[in-house]
Amino acid sequence: MSRTDNLYQLPENLPLPVDDGATNHLLGLQLPSIPLMSTAGIVVDLGSISDKTIVYCYPRTGKPDADLPKGWNEIPGARGCTPQSCAFRDHYQELQALGAGCFGLSTQTTEYQQEAVRRLHLPFNLLSDVELAFTKCLQLPTFEVESMTLIKRLTLIVKNGRIEKVFYPVFPPQHNAKEVIDWLSHHPQTNDR
Predict the structure, then answer these.
(1) CB burial of residue 124 (10 Å; 0-12, 13-18, 19+)
(2) How many whole angstroms separate alpha carbon 132 and alpha carbon 104?
(3) CA proximity to 160, closest of 97, 99, 96
(4) How confident is the model at residue 192 (pLDDT cuts 50, 70, 90)?
(5) Would you say residue 188 has pLDDT above 60?
């Protein structure tokens, strides 16, 4: 079965996510030392990375041959994981030039994420928090759909394992990578610490 909508573009008139304060506690926090499996098959501990790192958390990527969860377009901020990932892919060299690494993070399995990495030609790894250990430890905002617990879309800029900037809510998702680059460009002190 193939989808009739376009995974790479957002439909018009999506409900806008609002800042519900669910990430107010994150700024300045040290990331926990929690092993996360990457799509490269290696374990990543975000809390131990000293380099500047972008972690964009997203609900779930869809597949061209699978329907979206029921009511997906009505959930504020849910739609747009593929356009967001593609934007980070397209701006990846700019992020590297600013000294930043990049990871996507969702509660999907590594196997599911590996399909997205191949299909979207992502030059960076996706991390699986399928057990919700990272999500629960940081008290990241989540929502439930079809028996899945998914992370609300947010992006962290991390240096030496400490959160320096939080983007939340993120909308439209395809502009998030550019917003991150703009912030990094205007905060050069984070480039050298």
Answers:
(1) buried
(2) 15
(3) 99
(4) very low
(5) yes
The tokens for 19 are 């800042």
Q: How far apart are CA 185 and CA 140, in angstroms?
A: 26
The type of residue at 157 is I
CA 180 to mean position of chain CA atoms: 12
What phi and psi values does residue 97 have, to the nearest 5 degrees?
-65, -25
In tens, the pLDDT along 110-150 reads: 999 999 999 999 999 999 999 999 999 999 999 999 999 99
Specify the pLDDT at position 191.
46
Count CA within 13 A, CB hemisphere, residue 11: 14
- Cβ contacts of 31 within 8 Å, gap of 6 or more: 46, 47, 138, 158, 161, 162, 163
Residue 95 DSSP code: H
Tokens representing 16 are 């806008």
**Among 87, 99, 110, residue whose Cα is nearest residue 35:** 110
Instruction: Measure the CA–CA gap between 158 and 165, rounded to whole angstroms.
Output: 7
Amino acid identity at 21: G
Max CA distance (Å), the chain: 50
Q: Which residues contact 165 (CB under 8 A, 6 or more apart)?
A: 27, 156, 157, 183, 187, 190
- Could you tell me if residue 121 is left (phi over 0), alpha (psi between -120 and 50 degrees) or otherwise beta? left
